[in-house]
Amino acid sequence: MAATGSGLPGPTPLDGGKVEGGTVTFPNWRGEADRPSPPPPAPLPPGERVGFAFVGLGRLTLEELLPAFAECKTARPVALVSGSPEKAKVVAAQHGIKESSVYSYDDFDRIADNPEVQVVYVVLPNGLHRDFVIRAAKAGKHVMCEKPMANSSQEARDMIAACKQAGVRLMVAYRCQYEPYNREVIQRVRSGDMGAARIIEATNTQVMGPGDQWRFRKALAGGGALPDIGLYCLNTARAITGEEPVEVFARIFNPQADDRYREVEETIAFMLRFPSGTMANCSSSYGAHESKDLRVRLEKGRIDLENAFAYEGQQMRVAQRGGKAEVIDTVRMPQQNQFSLEIDHMAACVKENRVPRTPGEEGLQDHHLMRRSTGQPKPGRLSRLHR
Ligand code: NAD
């Protein structure tokens, strides 16, 4: 053990770690009975990471997406697009973004001349996604777009066509498809070890505040609870089965006296039937206390994922027969930031010229299904909820 300049003994090999291929690893210091700690993250140096520009500095961008870069390994924020120069200046300073890389919605197209920007991430109200995705593609940038992809299937098709024509990648930010517990459910069901999945139950509810919000305006939101949060139930049921539903129908409830629900739906229940026979019962509401859970009932057991569609707090339990007992196992995995994972996924796709796991076509398919489930013309104000 070498002495340091201070006269103290130097680190032992167990404490010092080892540098190999540009990354640092440590030998396991824990006993056999405990899980070893994961290796330290090995982020790319900032100059080698894929540069992201954010369009829209609202809650999701400031509260979740920009903070998630602290855990990203392949991506970094390099530009902002906002209608508020004052807000953009503060946020740029907080995240080390150059003032010259701040754009307004009007001069956004100048982003074509910024070589640091490789991906434009559109985080505006849904009704504005189409135009900004198309403008980003025309600027020659890869595009990531928040869910729901658009306000209608036609808008989604326009976005896919624009990205194809420009030769750029398009990813819809279905964060749950990158979240480790959701992935574990998908893997367990698809492995077949628990037999066929018969019933999926997915619920995504929350209580909305006062009416002065874009989410209550059809032109900006496209719809209410379904495209905003019920979409996760739909997308997850498809991801779990790996199938497309052959039958889908929905019922909607709107409180008559509540002006917030003149243009968009408050509560929706919908059912999907998949070719293998799996049925999904899904429900979503803007008027029920937050609850974001997933259950899969299979031939040989049950998987429960609490907070499946939340940003954090996932808890997974698997119930199966164990001899004469019903055994309920709790599955605990390391918590990972699902926003960091999805951003790094897009960055890896850009670097390796790969199609993202959730491309534009995934968003388009959900729009088709939302229209099929709710699109039958009905009298009164519930007609044409989803186009
Ligand atoms: P927000 O209202 O907090 O932010 C919207 C931003 O768009 C604001 O900066 C606002 O100034 C700007 N904007 C520009 N034109 C506007 C207009 N005409 N009306 C209203 N705002 C306008 O919204 P948010 O919650 O950040 O949602 C933005 C997008 O992100 C939406 O598509 C939403 O569905 C999606 N989202 C996704 C998740 C998720 O978990 N992946 C969570 C929340 C929101």
Automatic annotation (TrEMBL):
Region Disordered, residue ranges: 1-47, 356-387
Keywords: Oxidoreductase
Sequence ranges assigned to domain Gfo/Idh/MocA-like oxidoreductase N-terminal in this UniProt record: 51-174
Start and end residues of each GFO/IDH/MocA-like oxidoreductase domain: 183-303
GO molecular function: nucleotide binding; oxidoreductase activity
Signal peptide segment: none
Superkingdom as given in the UniProt entry: Bacteria
Pfam family, one: GFO_IDH_MocA
UniProt entry tagged with the keyword Oxidoreductase: yes
Biased composition annotated in UniProt, kind: Pro residues: 36-46
Keyword set includes Plastid: no
Family: Belongs to the Gfo/Idh/MocA family.
Name under which the protein is recorded: Glucose-fructose oxidoreductase
Species this protein is from: Skermanella aerolata
